[in-house]
Write a structure and sequence with these properties.
Strand order of the largest sheet: 7-5-4-8-9-10
Largest sheet: 6 strands, antiparallel
Number of domains: 6
Bound molecules: 2-(butylsulfanyl)adenosine
Distance between the termini: 56 Å
Radius of gyration: 29 Å
Number of helices: 25
Number of strands: 26
Helix content: 25-40%
CATH superfamily of the largest domain: DNA ligase/mRNA capping enzyme
CATH architecture of the largest domain: 2-Layer Sandwich
Structural class: alpha+beta
CATH topology of the largest domain: D-amino Acid Aminotransferase, Chain A, domain 1
Shape: globular
CATH class of the largest domain: Alpha Beta
Length: 681
């Protein structure tokens, strides 16, 4: 008999609550509270009721995890704050160096670390918004992308069962979450799910994924969310942000809060306070590694306390308050069948070993880097030699030694280093004292090809679709002779290319057009100036604010920039002294490519204020406090006068405090000062 809508609504509510509860037990806590059949029965009842009362279906219902219609593509979303990377350490010594640096920079602020697993998946940001009923709803899931801009993969993310679609207001209240918030973490594919995925792909005649990480990444970017729903992805949460800021007191509190909110937080975690304890955690983890059921490539240590994290801050690409300890590379022996020379965008010739395919560190490897001609020379490498190849995490495989024994006889002949560019045939040049030889032909097609690929790559101008096949054709048809030519391509020209239709042509043109706003730092990287990578480009852009200022700067002026030494400044001056390069800049400008950036603002928060410090502050040393006030534009004076704006008093403050009272100068404590430095709204 059909229920009234009212009864149906009530029953639907009950069922959803029960199902959510069991999903949390099963997918998050790994502790099922009901049989599969029991769960299916609840789900079926809910599905039936929803089918009979479609007006009662809501997007956060457990039935809505099965995925929907295939998407056309993914929209790009700018992250609330960049999704950064981690610096790596590979040895106890490197960890000890990092620990020392952290303690130096932290001054008197507390230093303790959380230890977590480094999950080998892909990082994802989840945006939750408060709904009218006070609960929070999953609004968006975004991939890391290039760290600044990711892709909106919400419909796929919604199918991951360890991600709550809705979080009740009671939980939010307990966690002290006033508004919407963002959770960041890692989506991983468990080994079982990975094997299953590959079996299925094989059945369908598709190439298998090389490892679980690629499989997870490929899955999250699948256009059909119904497929994603079957792939068994798991999400582990590790950060919680409100308005782009960390909320809790520290990382331990963050992980606890995430657990309380119903997220899956990796249970293999701890707290450590010394290098010895870090090493213990590493050893214990290595022992458990094979039994986890999902892949990890190391461990992550994070400074726990947020005030200390803030103090330590960030380099361009990674926080100073965290480090990844990567497990040592795995290796395998295989035969080197030959050596391939490739020409890079700077004309540099790089030798690559062509190997008999071998399985190492979870992937099949058939190429490995040999660095340069000296390396081949030093190893006495012969074509046909058996070699040991090493590979760690996402590191490019390396040949590390020649193997020689009864089963592995030596190769047959020496490799002759080319005297001419394998691509254009011009003579190669090896400068005095340099390890690399280069093709110096400015018109070398290999250089152009590599420059174009670099220009369009992620992290540079981010022109999606400008891959090898397209670049090759553009060059063959004489459509591009420099990166500037990309901006005059037309739809008529592009539709002529193989596998191009109107739509793909327009998409590529849109991507090219959008890249005009990538900003000065990206353009600087895109120009392929020697030694100018992401970090340097970023610093130069912030300091100079425009390409003209950089082109007009002397080596000395350039060297004023943090981390820019004589080698780098020399390369920049040399680059812009070439008329062809200046012309390239003009052409880019003419095409509308933005080549300005916001100059770094010196903070003016405390401008015009004078502070006097007295007594011992609980966390900051006197020097720290002074430095931070000055960085924020304030002044620090040694004695209290009528002109003093504030006296910052700590423990055992002396006569200066009396003087302040006498002159009615406001007195604040350390917390008050920190609040002025960084108001927490
Ligand atoms: S913290 C800003 N914690 O490793 C700090 N990352 O190599 C970066 N990863 O992009 C994130 N497990 O995808 C953090 N417990 C963990 C992690 C983790 C895996 C990944 C993450 C990040 C990459 C950096």
């Amino acid at each position: 008999m059909a229920m009234t809508t009212h009864d149906a609504a009530r029953r639907i509510g009950e069922l959803r609550m029960q199902i959510r509860h069991h999903e949390h037990l099963y997918y998050v806590l790994d502790a099922p509270g009901i049989s599969d059949a029991g769960y299916d029965a609840l789900m079926n009842e809910l599905k039936k009721l929803e089918a009979a009362h479609p007006e009662l279906v809501t997007p956060d219902s457990p039935t809505q995890r099965v995925g929907g219609k295939p998407a056309e593509g993914f929209a790009k979303v700018r992250h609330s704050r960049p999704m950064l990377s981690l610096d790596n350490a590979y040895s106890r010594e490197e960890l000890a160096d990092w620990d020392r640096r952290v303690r130096e920079l932290a001054g008197r602020l507390p230093v303790e670390y959380t230890s977590e697993l480094k999950l080998d998946g892909l990082s994802v940001a989840l945006h939750y918004a408060r709904a009218e009923d006070g609960a929070a709803r999953l609004e968006r899931g975004v991939t890391r992308g290039d760290g600044q801009i990711g892709e909106d993969v919400t419909s796929n993310i919604r199918t991951i069962r360890s991600i709550p679609l809705t979080i009740g207001s009671d939980k939010l209240k307990k966690a002290g979450l006033p508004r919407g918030f963002e959770v960041r973490g890692e989506a991983v594919m468990p080994e079982k799910a990975f094997l299953h995925t590959n079996e299925e792909r094989e059945r369908e005649g598709l190439p298998p994924f090389v490892n679980p990480r690629n499989s997870a990444a490929g899955t999250v970017r699948t256009l059909d969310s119904r497929i994603v729903a079957t792939r068994g992805l798991v999400f582990f949460a590790y950060f919680l942000l409100v308005d782009g800021e960390y909320l809790a007191a520290g990382q331990v509190a963050t992980l606890d809060a995430l657990t309380a909110l119903g997220f899956r937080v990796n249970p293999h975690r701890g707290r450590v306070d010394s290098v010895d304890n870090m090493m213990h955690f590493i050893e214990a983890t290595e022992k458990q590694r094979d039994t986890l059921g999902y892949e990890i490539d190391g461990v992550v240590f994070k400074v726990d306390a947020h005030p200390t994290q803030q103090r330590l801050g960030y380099t361009g690409r990674a926080p100073r308050w965290a480090i990844a300890y990567k497990f040592t590379a795995e290796s395998a022996i295989t035969r080197m069948e030959g050596i391939l020379i490739t020409v890079g965008r700077s004309g540099k010739l790089t030798p690559t070993a062509v190997l008999q395919p071998v399985f190492v560190g979870g992937v099949t490897v058939s190429r490995a880097t040999l660095h340069n001609s000296d390396f081949i020379e030093r190893m006495g490498l012969l074509v046909g030699d058996w070699v040991r190849v090493e590979r760690g995490g996402d590191v490019i495989p390396k040949v590390v030694e020649v193997v020689e024994d009864a089963e592995h006889p030596r190769g047959t002949h020496k490799f002759v280093w080319p005297t001419h560019c394998p691509d254009c045939g011009s003579a190669v040049v090896r400068a005095e004292g340099e390890a690399d030889s280069r093709c110096v032909n400015a018109a070398c097609p290999a250089k152009l090809r590599e420059s174009l690929l670099h220009f369009g790559s992620r992290g540079v101008m981010n022109i999606e679709g400008l891959g090898e096949a397209v670049v090759q054709q553009l060059m063959e048809r004489g459509l591009v002779h420099s990166v500037a030519d990309l901006y005059s391509l037309t739809e008529e020209q592009l539709v002529e290319l193989e596998r191009f239709a109107e739509k793909s042509a327009r998409t590529l043109l849109d991507e090219i057009k959008n890249s005009k706003h990538a900003g000065l730092a990206r353009v600087l990287m895109g120009l392929s100036i020697r030694f100018v990578g992401e970090r340097t480009a970023e610093l130069l852009a912030q300091e100079f604010g425009s390409i003209d200022a950089i082109m007009g700067a002397s080596a000395e002026e350039l060297s004023q920039v943090e981390e820019v030494g004589p080698r780098v400044s020399g390369a920049i001056v040399e680059f812009f002294s070439q008329p062809a390069n200046r012309e390239l800049v003009e052409r880019l400008r003419h095409s509308g490519v933005k080549m300005t950036a916001e100059k770094k603002q010196r903070s003016t928060r405390l401008a015009g204020l004078t502070f006097v410090l007295t007594g011992t502050l609980p966390n900051l040393t006197r020097d720290d406090a002074k430095k931070r006030i000055e960085e924020a534009g304030g002044k620090v004076s040694g004695s209290v006068s009528k002109k003093t704006s504030f006296v910052v008093a700590g423990e055992e403050a002396g006569s200066k405090l009396d003087k302040a009272h006498e002159l009615k100068v406001p007195v604040i404590d350390e917390a008050g000062l920190l609040e002025m430095l960084e108001p927490s709204n």
